[in-house]
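[User] Once you have settled down, look closely at the record that follows, and write a paragraph about the fold.
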Amino acid sequence: MDRRFLAAIGLMMLVVLAPAVLYKRPPRPTPAAEVPPSVGAPDSATTALPALRAPGVRSPAPTAVPPLAAPAPAAEDTVVVSAGLYQYSLSTRGARVIGARLLRYKSMAAGDQAGAAELVRAGDGLFALSLVTGNDTLSLADWQFTPSATEVRVSGETPVTFTGHSGNYTVELTYTFSPDDYRMTVRGRVTGLGPNGGLLIVGMGEGLRNTEADSSLNAHDFALVVRPVAKDPQAISFRKVSVGETRIEPGPFTWVAVKSKYFVLGVFARDSAARWAAAEMRREDPTKVPHFAGLRLSLPVAADGNFGWRTYAGPMEYPRLGAMGDEFDDVNPYGWPGFRTILRPIALGFRWLFVQMHERLGLAYGLVLILFGLIVRGVLWPLNQKAMRSAMEMQAIQPKLQEIQARYKNDPPKLQQEMFALYKEHGVNPMGGCWPMLVPMPVLLALFFVLQGTIELRGVSFLWFPDLARADPFFIIPVLSGLTMFALSKLGQRGLPPNPQAQMMMYMMPVMMTFVGLNFASGLNLYWTASNLASLPQQYLLGQERLKRQGAAVVVNTKK
């Protein structure tokens, strides 16, 4: 077999196996029922932790937030804010967000009984606040706030204001909700601050609640994502925080987000003068589920006491993420660093095409993937045709090529010159039979990321697959994929001289593809199987053409 062909096969194997090597399934976390109370809950909001100091805050702040005695919890009422897309729950204790139900997305987690997806973990509360002024730390998490309403139906831009008092301080916090989006604006004011202002510590809980049937795959994507000013977003996986470790990411940040596989909570700086100063991740309790980590952010507060931020709490629908600006759509990246520049445009194009085919043609997403596999092979048909015929020409000139190699083996420059002259005479491209084999690989990799992280495909069933984004529970489609790949290889060997290496690859590649495909999304294997089936006619016809050429060559040689 041509060494260039073997090199191409090796490269293809590397590309195909890369996702399986890099995308390792983590251990399944402890069931949600066994999760102890969160360290992000209000009763632990004043735990001693390293301070998230803002560069610009001139008050003589300490190097750590001092521990304070936790007061008895105040009475707690809930303010329910409802719209067509969501239902948020806010507590009068600390004016925290204690619930975020996304009404258009059901939870598929065990025990949730197909209710709406809930983002806030039990025991957690988003936006539990502490205020650092000078050497004092004032926790607002246990303040009793008075709301402007107890039940709100969002119509237009609808505000809900919470007011709380303690000592010389008064805090007014206003949440403004949008009726047709997952955006929320938070505006606040503290009265009683000194001329140096202060630092606001904003609790973000310990991560988003599990919403998926496969909790381990969901937890694999739990991460803190920060977007430094004038830099690309950076993701820090929860799995990288060890027990007892506190990790601080220094800002300033344009936005900070905590994400799961399909959902995200992002907070945006109000303006360029009030960016997030730092972000903190911590793991303190070894009995906690390892995929959760306490999160806090810091925000400088000027002397006038005004502060605020914008929030997105919802699904990672790409158009909505892009509408938030500041590259927020990159919170759900397609591809690994280094490959992302190439893969992301392809993946985004495929995502858009799939959604359009589903919505405009009324096709199920499973049919869309099958049709897409047929289209890809149809587009590549002329290229494959040309490449395979080039390979036939290479096979035809092998005797002359071997003669030249034997004649000029001691003269490399002359050998190269004569080889290129032979290629030119017969119109042969020595790489023409190899590179078309690699063309489908970027498509396959892009689809890998589309199917792993595109919320439009979340929970979509097809045939016996319960979810196109998850592995086939019966392993039928990976086996079919391997069988179709074997059939392609078998047809590709028709008319070729016996080659032990080619015979070995004909059996090894389908087996390896089947093995690595066992944990791939069933939709990915469905596409690959459809693509292979669409290639069988072309492979058969070219095999017939190769046999005819060999027969003609035998007749010519016999006459001679």
The radius of gyration is 30 Å. Confidence is low (pLDDT under 50) at residues 1-51, 54-72. The longest strand covers residues 246-259. The first helix runs from residue 3 to 22.
